[in-house]
Design goal:
The chain has nine helices and 14 strands. It is α/β, with parallel strands linked by helices. Helix 1 crosses helix 2, helix 1 packs across helix 3 and helix 1 crosses helix 4. The chain is elongated and about 75 Å long. The model has no long low-confidence stretch (mean pLDDT 87).
């Protein structure tokens, strides 16, 4: 039994809470993973996991072993990182989950700098607006917007993005320019962004002199993908509220015009998140540190 591999297998099973998900994330046959856990338990002479057809329960001995194994894996990674030189930089695959428009308008334009600095790190982008399963999808980290309510993840704030409300000149000529948020309820066509997770429409939010307003009204068009959401606004299908970083070119060219500028909502926070109980490889550490520096300027209005 390769004890180092067994440590990695065991910690991944605990984190994924599933043999199948752990095997998929390690690109390992389920039978091999199960055999590795059995060999580890036999070697230690204790039961680490209680398995039924529906769930896995970590025994007290398994929990203690997991915590110690995690420290060992972290220490090994720290040792490797401490010996890295200019010729021996972090390397390997880094899988990053990110939303569509954030990938297109922020992350991808920045990546040339990162990949030049760290040429031995190869990146896979999992681009989708729906939040990814970090463990099951074998994803190292994700870039997410909004409040972080998931206590199972470590979240590090990387910046804030301004939100803007706008439409095409042709739309405004036809339907008029709203002077107050409540006017959006009277005959205007709203393009709502639908939560990819719940399907519910995000309300249009506004703020003026400390007063917060939310417009929850029937939308004429709902879209659950950020790039398509922006494309609908550029096609003149209605009024949209989204991030300024996605509309810079359209605003600069006059293809879109801001409305209700005195009612801009508070900036929207963005975080990079990763699994709480997973050891952090050096390639992920350098990416997070780079992102903390690079992201704020890229989303700045």
């Amino acid at each position: 039994m390769d004890r180092f591999s067994a440590l990695k297998v065991f910690t991944r099973v605990v984190e994924a809470n599933s043999f199948t998900r752990a095997a998929d994330s390690l690109n390992m046959p389920n039978a091999t993973l199960s055999k590795t856990i059995q060999q580890l338990e036999s070697h230690l002479g204790v039961c680490l996991l209680q398995r039924t057809t529906r769930r896995i329960t970590v025994t007290p001995e398994g929990r203690e072993y997991y915590e110690k194994a995690l420290r060992i894996l972290q220490d090994l990674d720290d040792i490797d990182a401490s010996f890295k030189t200019a010729r021996n930089k972090p390397k390997g695959y880094l899988r990053i989950a990110v939303g569509g428009s954030t990938a297109r308008d922020v992350l991808i334009p920045l990546l040339a700098d990162f990949m030049t600095t760290y040429p031995d790190i190869r990146i896979d982008l999992a681009v989708a607006d729906k939040p990814s399963d970090l463990i099951g999808g074998n994803i190292d980290c994700a870039i997410r917007g909004g409040p972080m309510d998931d206590s199972t993840l470590i979240a590090r704030k990387i910046g804030e993005a301004a939100l803007i409300t706008c439409a095409t000149p042709g739309y405004l000529k036809c339907y008029g320019v709203p002077a107050y948020p409540d006017e959006l309820k009277n005959g205007h066509r709203l393009i709502s962004y639908l939560s990819p997770a719940s399907g519910r429409a995000f309300p249009f939010r506004f703020e003026h002199d400390g007063v917060h307003t939310e417009i929850k009204t029937e939308h004429h068009l709902g879209i659950n993908e950020s790039n398509a959401h922006i494309a609908a606004a550029e096609a003149g299908l209605g009024i949209v509220q989204t991030f300024t970083y996605s509309l810079k070119n359209a605003l600069a060219s006059g293809a879109l015009v801001e409305v209700l500028s005195q009612w801009r909502p508070a900036s929207y926070p963005f975080h990079v998140v990763y699994a709480q109980n997973r050891h952090v490889p050096s390639r992920l550490r350098v990416f997070i540190e780079w992102l903390v520096e690079a992201f704020p300027a890229a989303v700045k209005e």
